[in-house]
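Question thread 4412

I'm putting together a teaching handout and wanted feedback from people who do this every day. The idea is simple: show students a protein as raw sequence, then show them the structure tokens that encode its fold, then repeat with a second protein so they can compare. Below is the first pair exactly as I plan to print it.
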Amino acid sequence: MFAPAPRDPDRTLDPHLQDLALTDMTDAYLESLQILERMHRLMLDLVKDEFERLHKGDLTPVQAMILYNLGEAEVSAGELRSRGMYQGSNVSYNLKKLVTMGYVHHERCDMDRRSVRVRLTPEGQAVREMVRQLFIRHAQGLASSGVLEDPPLDQVNLQSRRIERFWTEQIRYIY
């Protein structure tokens, strides 16, 4: 983690230069938002293409990502929603479909009968493994091409987590 260099209080930047720096950072931030949205859409397209290749047409990419993000855990629908990005989707509706198709097992909580806990069935685990293998192949291809090295992906992830934390704080501040 890099700490910013200490500022010399006796040296102030020209206000025009400060405005240019802020504009450059704002432009870069807005571009990163567009890239993030495009990457999410592309990821769903990659999952869709993989499932078509495997003749697994009964699932949508969003449903496959729900299965992937559910993993080995047993969680509520609310917990699952907070774990993943389900653009334009209704998690409850998709969970109901996944239960009907046999990919997810659901069970009402003994303590709160309104709450439902979900976990993967063996069929759901198989789908999760398909998505995991797809992502592993992509990681290997990106690593061998050097794409993940400059800047190092762990630094990109660190910055993304900081932005995620900022956004979360903004949402909490509103409510």
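The second pair follows. I'd like the answer to focus on this one:
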Amino acid sequence: MLCGIDEAGRGPLAGPLVVAGVVLKKEIVGLNDSKVLSEKKREKLFEEIIKESKYHIIFTNAKTIDEKGLSFCLKSSIMEIMENLKNDCNTFLMDGNTTFGIVDLACKIKADATVPQVSAASILAKVSRDRYMLNISKDFPNYDFHKHKGYGTKVHVEAIKQFGRSSEHRYTFRLKALGEENTGTQKGLF
């Protein structure tokens, strides 16, 4: 059995990194990379995946990303998934081009579009993260998280200029638009 692993939230300026692992118990029609599916289709597939799989989802908050670094957070999330799902599968496949040095982890570029288990993980991660950002939007009305989900849109950058960063923002992600210098942790994004 194969466990597919994918993440959502590697690049946003705010919100968590979400990593999901999925072992499908049966075939699910319509799986694909979450980014190419409509929100309605992702939501429908999310419910089906939850019912028809063994899965594990990890959220890492912005503060931990700032303190530990994105690669560390990705690696530790993947290792937690592997530990939690090791009795349900014998192969682990991560979307992308790196295994983060993890033994027994394979990687494949565009696996989220070509391997059903990774597509399912992509959907679980994206929907979980989007729901989180929608939920916190009411607590941070100045930022409109419900509209851009924490990504670096022009509107979001303008809100940061006006109100500064919130507790949901990643402080190590430097913004050229704010005149911030790159610290080497994250390249200037805008």
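Top answer:
Good format. For the second protein you could add a caption like this: The first strand starts at residue 2 and ends at 8. Residues 184-190 have pLDDT under 50 and may be disordered.
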